[in-house]
Amino acid sequence: MNLLSHAVTTTGRRSNNEDSLCHAPALGLFAVADGLGGYDGGEVASAVAMETLLAFVERGRRDPEGTWPCKQDKHRTLAENLLRAAALAAHQAITARRDGRLNQMGSTLAALYVSGDIAAVAHVGDSRVYRLREGTLTPLTRDHSLWAELVAAGQAVAPRHQFPYRNQITRALGLAGDARADTTVVDVQPGDRFLLCSDGLYDPFDDPTLALHLATGDAARCCEALVALAYERGSTDNITAVIVDAS
What we know:
It contains 6 helices and 11 strands. The protein is globular and about 45 Å long. It starts with a strand and ends with a strand. It is 31% helix and 27% strand. Strands 2, 3, 4, 5, 6 and 9 form a 6-stranded antiparallel β-sheet that branches.
């Protein structure tokens, strides 16, 4: 499978950028992280998450029998196991750095690892992965957030953009409690377009509007335009997007 991709991150209306990204098309690895923990901590946590993810996947490809922070699950593909272990390694790396001014830091994670005609997806927190196929936008992740948990439990809550605690997440790398990455595997077909993004990108859009704009232009032009449009539509957070086209 051939991959064409582009990545953009911007501070937006914030004073500093706590988002980080991984853009490694030669590996088929793409990811977005949104840091938590204030001015210093957030940007450190997201950077550590991306550095650890990339290093672990590179090493895992070279030496699948090397030391992992967890056992491989025989019911999962190698790609899925690799992302799952890489996310755990990132969690451990952030936890080891939590001290002093960094003692509250953590990070979300949304990762895509394409291997042939399949892709493994892993996520923690409320950064997202979408797939656009023949005009249909499909979320490949479900937010680990208070709003999403209430919806999943069948409780009547306001739409996300009206929910006062919409940015309260229930899982994050580096934080105490549940930091597991949810993983899945999807097929990849020529013509598929994947979007990985932080909440600063998707917050100003509903799914139909996002799908409409995501279907426009090549990966580079679409990525740049989406980030600019999210800012124009009032995004108050850092804005990060990675677009991957399969052919």
